[in-house]
Amino acid sequence: MKALEPSAIDLSITGEYTAIGGSGEHVVPAAGPALPTGVRVLVADDDHRIRRAIASSLGRLGFDVKVAEDGGPAIALAEHQHPDVALIDYSMPMSGLDVTRAIKARYGASTHVCILSGNDAEDVRLAAFDAGADDFLVKPISMSELRRRMVASARKQHAYIEARLAREQADRLLAWGTEASALLAHDLNNGLAVALSNISYLASVLELADDDRQALLSTQRALRRMSGLVANFVDIARFEDDALQPRPSRVAVRELLLEVMAVHAPTLGREIRHAVTCEPSLEGYFDEALIMRVLHNLVGNATRYCNTGGFIRLGAQAAGDAVEITVSNSGPAIPPELAAKLFSKYALGRGGQRGLGLYFCRLACEAQGGSALHRADPEGPTFVLRLPAPAEVVTPAG
Hints:
Blueprint: E1 40-44, H1 48-61, E2 64-68, H2 71-80, E3 85-89, H3 96-107, E4 112-117, H4 122-130, E5 135-138, H5 143-156, H6 158-205, H7 210-240, E6 249-252, H8 253-268, E7 273-277, E8 283-286, H9 288-305, E9 311-319, E10 322-329, H10 336-339, E11 347-348, E12 354-355, H11 357-366, E13 371-377, E14 380-388
Parallel strand pairs: 1-2, 1-3, 3-4, 4-5, 7-9
Antiparallel strand pairs: 6-8, 9-10, 10-14, 11-12, 13-14
Helix pairs in contact: 2-3, 6-7, 7-11, 8-9, 9-11
């Protein structure tokens, strides 16, 4: 058999030995050591024969192998998919040391990096380990030894591999749950929209006794509230994915507040007073449909917590370069320990209830460059929405 060239490496894909640069083949049986499942290996080498040989041989053992012809593609592959073991050639157009540093900076000890080089000089080895390499192999090397070293590295990384697999499984389940929830919300939203439309039609055309009409209107209000909750759920997911972009326009703020109050007034009864305070000329610049839903959420909350004989007020005023809209109700104050987390997702509210309403309010305002906050007033809680005003009517602050 001809002597191995300095760049020679085992080309076996079956556990037998074949050397590059040889005129013949020398076959040596190879054992198959145990291998953890799901192990990802990244192979980076500018010699296509070596890449192909290593990928074929390790793939036969059960490794999930990805290959790159240079350092740049290797780093891109590593960023796309976390490798458990990386076999990096020292001498590529982009240095294997730079690849090692990049992988170690991103994944640390969870990726075992082995540098492969035809130069066994001490300074080369030291440079490899200084860059973060965990192992150093010298060419030429038999594929049998390389396979065993890769299996040993995989066993060493077993805990990291198990953690990665568990994390990826959790991500898949979360993605599945999110998709299933979105489909369910979509179907619920469609069904509720049809039911609400039909109930509204019946309420407008039927001549009913007072008790029957009140029952119909009560059903209409319940459907409207359920439809709003489902819409909030859908839009929160879209806000979090940056898929929902507000469509701002000039808004007559007083007309908006009056329209919202008109929807809720029939549910208040004679024992709760209500009022709207806003200059007729006040304008805002925001997504009217989104903010209308925010106000319906806040007025609905005020209705539930307002004390008997109390009041609910909607107000708005210019505030520098913004419009401030307030929703106030009389009644018990919100405890400080709850007030600090009111706008968090699934925040625990009064009565032990958890909801998304105030979280949606916050996201809807922030998406338009505004804000939502709670203020504890002497007569009861107040929610303040700060939203943009049209640029040409900006009032100097102070």
